[in-house]
Amino acid sequence: MTDHDHHHDDHSELSETELRVRALETILTEKGYVDPAALDAIIQAYETKIGPHNGARVVAKAWSNPAFKRALLDDASKAVGTLGHVSRVGDHLIAVENTPERHNMVVCTLCSCYPWEMLGLPPVWYKAAPYRSRAVKDPRGVLADFGVSLPKETEIRVWDSTAETRFLVLPMRPKGTEGWSEAQLAELVTRDSMIGTGFPKLPGAPS
Amino acid sequence: MTSAAIDRATRALPDLPRDEDGPVFREPWEAQAFAMTLSLYDRGLFSWNEWAAALADEINIAQAAGDPDTGTTYYRHWLNTLEKMIARKGVATIETQHRYRDAWDHAADRTPHGAPIVLRPEDFPPSA
């Protein structure tokens, strides 16, 4: 029996706790006690305070350690597992590398499998259905909306999660970070840079 | 929602998991539960003193039942408190809350992996 024999059911799964939270949110919204947009705004204010944010550490390590980078691009689940924080999103994770020739962008954030443990919470706009369809048809336009402009010759590839794969974008290491420690580098890695809708912070830019 | 409201909440709830900037959450649902509570407080459903007392009761019950209280279960107690508060204030009974929970479970079951989970009327059992 290998790992490949293991298949998840093809339907969505919510934990008991998630079900209870969704139940309350629906009830309170229907009765007019809470406004979903106001809830989103509160949660968004804490987006950097939710979860372990493993992704930035993974990216920083790949930037500083060529052997780890090769291992990550070869089998991201396995490579991330060696760092000692295997979580449920560790399964079926694929890392895609940005290069001058190709920029990667991830669109699946609507379902319950979004890897928030790695990436942090998705931005609110990212969950909107129109974004998903537009990102597939006009990725360059969507990126431009977010202030991300890429050279014309850079190909943009859009990744949509399937039932069993999640994606992590490995952004390009910013220039001017030679000799930086992994911890320093991790500070530059933003959530948006790991879903391909932004770049890492530049050295010296205010955090 | 103002940051002043959040400051008041964190002052009224000394055990709230936090770092130097304010509250921190282990999982997204914890932040959702926190946000709902903040909204209900804002609407005047309860005071922070009342909330803190109810949460302390919940934690005492859990500890008496052997909860290790390492901080990892804080928001489980918080969610229990929120459900009971919503029932006590007459917003929705525990039975109603269970009905919605089961409906969400049904919605998740019929939603293919990768698609957004949306609650529909047919997720509720037909009323007797």
Structure explained in plain terms:
The complex is a heterodimer of chains A (207) and B (128). Mean pLDDT of chain A is 83; it is low at 1-8. Chain A is 39% helix and 10% strand. Chain A has helices at residues 16-30, 36-45, 54-64, 66-74, 76-81, 116-119, 129-137, 139-145, 182-186, 191-195; strands spanning 93-97, 102-106, 155-159, 166-170. Chain A contains ten helices and four strands, in the order H-H-H-H-H-E-E-H-H-H-E-E-H-H. By secondary structure, chain A is mostly helical. The longest helix of chain A has 15 residues, at 16-30. In chain A, strands 1-4 form a two-stranded parallel sheet. Chain A has a two-stranded parallel sheet with strand order 2-3. Chain B is mainly alpha-helical and 128 residues long. Chain B has a single domain, classed as Cyclin A, domain 1 (Orthogonal Bundle). Chain B is built from five helices and two strands. Chain B has helices at 3-12, 28-42, 48-64, 74-88, 94-110, and strands spanning 18-19, 22-23. Chain B has a two-stranded antiparallel sheet. In chain B, helix 2 (28-42) packs parallel to helix 4. Chain B is globular. The mean pLDDT of chain B is 88. At the A-B interface, helix 1 and helix 2 of A face strand 2, helix 2, helix 4 and helix 5 of B.
